[in-house]
Design goal:
Arc Repressor Mutant, subunit A; Rossmann fold; elongated; alpha/beta; 17 strands; 362 residues; 3 domains; 15 helices
């Protein structure tokens, strides 16, 4: 199959880049569920941002800590609107510029500035450790904030003798429409998606927070059947801290979690030979003799259970446990019937009288 992700369903929690990421996955054959976990609210007209900008002009920073590409671009665009872009750019040109990641680096270079150092881990803690080792006593540090305040970073720099100017360029806010996020949480909890992608640590925190009393159920799914794809180690940290294994490059060129998922998801396929057919389970679809067959959740759940024990007879009671809550044994019979129709290979699933069903493995 040429489409590496055909049959897989992927949730995208990004807001600003959701269309870009969706297109990347869809071009590889995946089905995409769009569910922004947060939205970015620019603060171009915010008093705090203007005051921070004037503070940088009045007390030129010795160090600029650039956290995000969107933040640096937004800061310079806001300064442009106030007629302060050139003075600000000239001031920052004389600073020791630390870029936390590739997107921040790109924004710095686009502004005509030059980064002097960037951490391998994209971690704020590593940046602070570097600056403290280098020495910041008596220096002014301009800290471009990453959505919310970063008190740990500020306090560590102040303790090392620096004066910190916090630059709030934007803030995180809940999505304008929370329904898609709650729908995605339902799908994750029911293990009806194969992967969920995150482009920021706050987005991962927001999804878990929105899960409410189902947080442990969601975490259990992310620790098992649902792959968490992150753009980097910093984004992955809230999940790793909760014991969730993540698919994340050590550094993310372009900031997209696509390559790791393209490699990891196909490795989760299961193949069997049954009734003369080659049957491969890919996410929430089946490939029968090279042809993709999309299946509804209930038939797919039955197929997964049967494929996990190829040739073994599973009772209706055992298969019932794989279906959504509230189903009965009649629902199992319906799911099996729909499975046979969906596969277009009715002999693959064999009825064993008074016992249950099995795959007719070769």
């Amino acid at each position: 199959m040429r489409d590496e992700l055909a049959g897989f369903t992927i949730g995208v929690t990004a807001d600003r880049r959701r269309d870009e990421l969706a297109a990347l996955f869809q071009r590889r054959g995946a089905r995409v569920v769009l569910a922004p976990a947060l939205r970015i609210v620019p603060l171009a007209d915010d008093t705090d941002l203007r005051e921070a900008t004037r503070a940088c002009l009045a007390h030129p920073p010795d160090v600029l800590m650039a956290n995000t590409g969107i933040g640096m671009r937004g800061w310079l665009e806001a300064a442009e609107g106030w007629g302060l872009a050139e003075p600000l750019r000239d001031t920052l040109t004389r600073a020791y510029v630390v870029s936390r990641g590739p997107k921040a680096t790109g924004a710095i270079r686009a502004a005509g500035l030059r980064e002097h150092w960037s951490p391998a881990s994209e971690s704020c803690d590593e940046v602070v450790e570097h600056l403290v080792r280098r020495g910041v006593a008596g220096q002014v540090v301009a800290l471009q904030l990453h959505g919310d305040r970063q008190p740990e970073c500020t306090e560590a720099l102040v303790a090392a003798g620096a004066t910190v100017i916090e630059v709030p360029v934007y803030r995180w806010a809940p999505p304008a429409d929370p329904a898609p996020l709650h729908r995605l949480i339902d799908l994750v909890a029911g293990r009806l998606v194969d992967a969920v992608t995150f482009t920021s640590a706050p987005a991962a925190e927001a999804l878990l927070r929105a899960a409410g009393d189902r947080t442990e159920t969601v975490l259990a799914a992310l620790r098992g059947d649902v792959l968490a794809g992150c753009v980097g180690t910093v984004t992955a940290e809230p999940l790793v801290r909760r014991g969730v294994p993540v698919s994340a490059p050590s550094r993310a060129p372009g900031g997209a979690p696509v390559p790791p998922l393209v490699e990891e998801l196909p490795r989760r396929t299961v193949s069997v030979k049954a009734a003369g057919h080659v049957l491969t389970l890919r996410g929430h679809a089946a490939v029968v003799d090279g042809e993709l067959r999309q299946l509804a959740p209930a038939p797919m759940a039955v197929l997964r259970a049967l494929a996990a024990s190829p040739g073994k007879v599973l009772s209706r009671t055992a298969l019932l446990r794989t279906l959504p809550r509230g189903a009965d044994e009649h629902a199992v019979e319906m799911a099996v019937a729909r499975l046979r129709v969906g596969l277009r290979a009715p002999r693959v699933v064999q009825t064993v009288v008074k016992r249950g069903y099995r795959l007719r493995v070769d």
